[in-house]
Structure formats: structure tokens, C-alpha cells
């Protein structure tokens, strides 16, 4: 029974990250043909933005070392209107992506110095300088550019992240030419008041809500409540990972991406259009869970697939 | 970092159900002394309403057959201001509870005919008739009475439950003399718009929000988002189960109670007072998980107890 709540967007664009953010966190690399089928099934389930892979150096992310082999196998999807963004860390990655015809790229920044140092081996300012030619050249080539911004709420070393600090880096990414932002709660500590506070501060700094996506992690079980707070603010782009891939709740290293199915269950109930067929999506996550040899952490996948 | 969101209650009363709703769903009975220590630890963690047990016939709920032995062991807690409500199914149960000095009782009704028939072996009207003398006598004895209302959103046999039907049974429970209601999403299918719609309909029928508690299950991952919607409506009584007891996400029979820790994490972040010490509560759930021989399904418990 769909019961809309007033003031929410009529339609939400789900930015599906399972094939990239999910699979890059697997201990062992998934075969290229399984990745291709996974992405194809996600598109068949109605997802229209499926982040496909990352053109990062294989030394850092061996799980996605097959980007050059995978991406060309998806050409028919791109031709059928499915967006297939790819992550590029630097100009070398951009070259590889553009050579294959990628028309949607994403860069991955940090709101905190500590995470920038640990993840990018740079200061925040240095990372922005590194992204500058990447974004500029991507835009020159007509590509759409997404700017991921991690650690927007809490940071494992720095604790709570001041809203003004996040706004500063967010503005800098947009000033470089990014078309949209994805605000990441990388360690999942954020709560709904913090979400509203950050969104209001971004608006106050001139960032329109329609350029903002949200990327919540369920490490503390907050992802869907935070998503609701963002929807109530008008945000209409939400990142999620099919089956909750990208964080195994059984592992110490759990990152706990919001499961796309849990999100779609809520959006369906709210009468918000997504274009996604939940049954087909759940079947895809069950299929992928079998390939990975463990059950999906998504509660909706478990509930729907355990039906008697 | 506490970042309050406007319009939310300043304080939330958590109605802790782990010792009753949680343990009654365990395959094997937990020893009475473990139950007593569990309840004592929950009170020590700051919970002020800890549902203690059920005076139901041991044939139906053998896990709680020790109610007569357990309840007297908690006398000092009751004296120290901790509310220890007990569930009573009928007059016989009420007699047993009153004989031990219980001053807070709860009855357990159903919003749907199918669940009333299966769980209570009665029609809804017959169950209300059964509760009538229970509530009247409890009130005469000065006890506070809570009316649980299950299947307020979806029913496994009937599907979505019409709001008007829930309002009718809710009003009937209040007319019997119940002091407060607990609206249960027993199978966890509800979403935030549905929550708002039901709360508005109850208000429209003359039920004040301060007589309403909410009891969400996380079967589809919706419990905390639904809680946020209820808080935004002004609800300030929320049921939750320490460690998420009462529904194992690994079992087919998962009922998936909202974990108290996940709730407290959100409320702490929103600057809403609960009186609960999250570290002490988490330690209690870890201790209980060891007694039960399996990890807590609460994401916050997992995140906090896996800290390196």
C-alpha cells in the first residue's frame, strides 16, 4: 500500500553502486563475466544509473583490475539509455576511461585531512588540485562528472566533521566543474538532524539541492532514517548498493552500504517512483549472493527471499 | 555530535521489550537468574520502562513460564523507580500478576481478524470482550494499562491493513480504559507515509498523540525511518529491544525488533534525551548475546563492539 508523505520528491534517481563500491570491497575479485551479468541484471531490474567500475591502478584495487575488459562488454546498455559512470582517481585513469568511451565519470574526494592523507596520500587541497585537470578534461569531452565527498559526517580519526568544513570542500568540487555531489557518510555515524543541518548549510552557501546526492552507510543502522531526512529536504538522488554489497555485517571491516532493496521498499511505500522492479532486483541480489557464497545483508532481500 | 532537528520531542521514553518480546521468541528458555540479571543491567543502563515477562499460560509461551519466580526478584528495581510492566492475556494472568504486586500491565490485541483468530483464537470483538474485565480490574487496582495493537500496518494473510480498521480497534482499547497504546508493525512492512497517515487518523478520531507509542519491526529495514516519521509527528514513546532481540535475521521466523541501541544512536544524535547510557546498554547486549550463543543483530552493537 503506497501512502505518500507530503513534501517528498515524486521521483528518486537511484545511483546504484554495488558493482563498483560493493565489489571493490570483496576479498577476492569477481570474474569479469559475472560482473557484466550483474550489471546487466541491475539494468534489467530498472536501475538507470549503474556505476560500473573504477579506473584506479590495479595495485590499489585489484578487485576492479578488469575495468578495460568489463566496460566494453556493456556498450549495448549505454546505447539503451543506462548510465554507466566510472570512478577515475586521476588523469591516467581518465585517459583509460575516455579511451573506452565513458561519458560519466566520478572523482572521489575527502572532507577531512586525515582521510585524504590515508586514502589519497595527499592533503585536501592537493587532492582538489589533482582533480582539477581530470574534471576539466572530462567536461571538455562532454562527460558528466560526479564528485564523491567522503567523511561528510564523522571521521574515524577526527570524530564529528564540522559542517562548514564539508561545505568548503563541496563548493570547491563544484567550482572545479562537477555536475553533482554525492555526500558520503563513510563510517555511518550520521543522524537525521546532522543530515538536515549539512543540507541547509550547503543551500545557504548557494548549492542547489538538485545537485546533491546522498550516500549513507548502515554501519549504525541509520542509513534509511538519514535518507528519509534527505528526501524531506528535497534530495532526489540516493546512492545505494544492491543487496547491501560493500559491507558485510559479519566482518570487522563492515562498511555497510545502504541496500538498494531496503531503499526501494521505503520509496515504493511512499509512492515515490524509481522505475525499479523490486522482485527482479531482489532476485539479482540473491543470485549475486550465491556467487559470493554468503547471504545478502539486506533485510528486504532476506524477508522477500525467505517467503514461504 | 548532537544536531537536533526542529519539531521533535525533547525527550523520548523507551519502552524496552527485550526481556519479554525478545526472550519469548528464543527457542529455548533462558534461566531465570539470567533474565533477572539482564533486566537489572538494562535498568542500570538507564532504561526506566523494562517489560519484564508475561503471565501467559506456560503451554503457549514456555520461555516465560518462570514469571512467578522472576518477578519477585525484581522488587528492588520497582522500588527504585523502574517500571516493570508485564503482559497478561486474560483474567487468570491478571490474577497472577496482581498477586505479585504488578502495577503496570499490558494486553495484546490485534487490528486484524486473521491474526486475532490465529494468535488469540477469537474474533477481534471477542478479544476486546476478554480484555474488558482485565483492564477494568487492573485499573480498579490502580495499575497502569498498556494496550498493544498488532498488525497495524500489514498482515501476512490480509495484506495492507486499512487505517480506519486500526483506528476502530485502537479507540475500542482506549474506551476499555487503556492508558496508552502501542501500535505494532508486527511484520515490518510499514513505511513512513503509512505511519504518518495512521497517526493523523488517530488524532482525527480524538486520540491524543501522547497516548500513542510505536513498535516497529526491522524485517524490511524500515524500523528506524518509521520511528523518525513518528517522532516528527510528536510521538515520544518508542518500543525497542536491546540488541534487537526477538527476531534473528538469520532465521526464517525473523521478527526483527528495532534494536534499542540503533534507536539510542539516532536519538543521541538528534539531541533527544533518553537517560540511556549507550555504552552500558551495548555491553549488556553483548553479554546477553554471549548467553544466547550468537551475535546481536543490532548494527550499532556490532559497530561499537567491533571497535579496534
Automatic annotation (TrEMBL), chains A, B:
Keywords: Lyase, Metal-binding. SUPFAM superfamilies: Aldolase. GO terms for molecular function: lyase activity. InterPro entries: Aldolase_TIM (IPR013785), HMGL (IPR043594), PYR_CT (IPR000891). Signal peptide: none annotated. PROSITE patterns: PYR_CT. The keyword Nucleotide-binding does not apply. Residues 12-282 form the Pyruvate carboxyltransferase domain. Belongs to the HMG-CoA lyase family. This is Hydroxymethylglutaryl-CoA lyase.
